[in-house]
Structure formats: C-alpha cells, structure tokens
Amino acid sequence: MFVYTTSGTCSRQIIFEVENNKLHGVKFIGGCSGNLQGVSKLIEGKDIDEAEKLLAGIKCRNDTSCPDQLSKAIAAYKKSVVG
C-alpha cells in the first residue's frame, strides 16, 4: 500500500496499491466523495504509466486537482520503488 499526502486539493491523502504495474484500490481521503469514487473506479486496473500521463495537468484550483495529485502520487510511487 502506498500513501501520498496531497497538496493544494480538498483531498488530504491518496492510498493505492500497484500489482504488475497496475493500479488497484485507489482511495482518496477527503475531497468530493462522488467524483473521487468515480475517478477511483475508472482508474482501477489501469497501467500506472498510462494513468500518470492521462491525469497529469488536470486543473481545479491552486493550479492542481485531485486527478493531477494522483498523477504526482504515481510519480512518487515510481521514484520510491526505483530509488
């Protein structure tokens, strides 16, 4: 399980697992519950590289968004397993 503390969004944390380079069990702590449940279901089982690229740069407020923060969480996860 990987836990990422967000910045600039209503959600405070993003929790997920990666198995065979696929996202599983994505859960946002805080934020807009319905929208984030939808994001979690849509991203379930997606390749992490594809998801990171797809979600990066989506803006809401503070020049970021919960999906953008998920892309940053994926990048942090990848950095943690490489380095």
Relevant terms:
alpha+beta; 3-stranded antiparallel sheet; 83 residues; 3 strands; single chain
Task: Write a concise synopsis of the structure shown.
With 83 residues, the chain is α+β, with helices and mostly antiparallel strands. Helix content is 43%, strand content 27%.
N-to-C terminal Cα separation, in Å?
17 Å
Catalogue the unreliable spans.
none
Secondary-structure-derived class: alpha+beta
SS elements, strand count: 3
Radius of gyration over C-alpha positions, nearest whole angstrom: 11 Å
The portion of residues assigned to helices is 40-55%
Major beta sheet summary? 3 strands, antiparallel
Mean pLDDT across all amino acids? 96
Categorize the overall geometry.
globular
Strand residues, percent: 25-35%
Question: How is the largest sheet built, in terms of strand order?
Answer: 1-2-3
- Helical stretch count? 3
Description of the structure:
- The protein is of the alpha+beta class.
- The chain is 43% helix and 27% strand.
- It has helices spanning 33-43, 48-55, 66-82, and strands at 2-5, 11-19, 22-30.
- The chain has a 3-stranded antiparallel beta sheet with strand order 1-2-3.
- 29% of the residues are buried.
- The mean pLDDT is 96.
